[in-house]
């Protein structure tokens, strides 16, 4: 069974609701969630483990090296990373929002989800860390990151200035949750999200930053995250404590992985050279990003 240091929870489905044309909300309650501990991060994410087709719950993990996992040489269920859209510590209910355009394993499961089915979920963590002196914030997101943006916005205090640039499949997928903060939005429709080139990076560069120190949070497609990070670090010259940039998913993942395997040695050599040069973590990321760009990744 999983160790206490690396908890794993079986979480039953209690409700399923379509909140926009391309977003389903799955509510989990009961089961092992009676002992779930939230990270407290507004953008907290965890790993969701899905049942196999025809099954009502995923297989139990094993204790491997002191942590839970599934044997490499055995059956490994489908797993994906998702945002905890809402956690109610009193009712022990967890909402997870699923983008349901496309045809991946998570989409297929969500479209047939019903009460009584069981998911596996892991411990959660997050990255949203605005500096104390931030006079304004810019949140940049595609559909996969919209649940995190929604929770961040809902939890903001009065007086906080935030602008959201969000790329959604249709205008009906826009979400503007209630908040005490001063929040404005730029909505992009029909681009990115696996259906075409993203307009997020261009929209962010075109947005006029307010006066004073700021903070940028981005989550979306992994290749685009490199572009946004390069803009913040090199074009704007920001230090890494003023932004958090995450790749939530990768376009054409199977094809990308196949290309990566062919140049893995080249990427690892760049990483090793950067480590040997004694650079900091951001310099290491720069070196890896550059090697991936050179390799056409």
UniProtKB/TrEMBL annotation:
Residues 6-131 form the FAD-binding FR-type domain. Gene3D superfamilies: Nucleotide-binding domain of ferredoxin-NADP reductase (FNR) module, Translation factors. InterPro entries: FAD-bd_FR_type (IPR017927), FNR_nucleotide-bd (IPR039261), Riboflavin_synthase-like_b-brl (IPR017938), SIP_FAD-bd (IPR013113), SIP_fam (IPR039374), SIP_rossman_dom (IPR007037). CDD domains: siderophore_interacting. It holds the Pfam family SIP. PROSITE patterns: FAD_FR. One of its GO terms (molecular function) is oxidoreductase activity. This is Siderophore-interacting protein. It comes from Rhodococcus spongiicola.
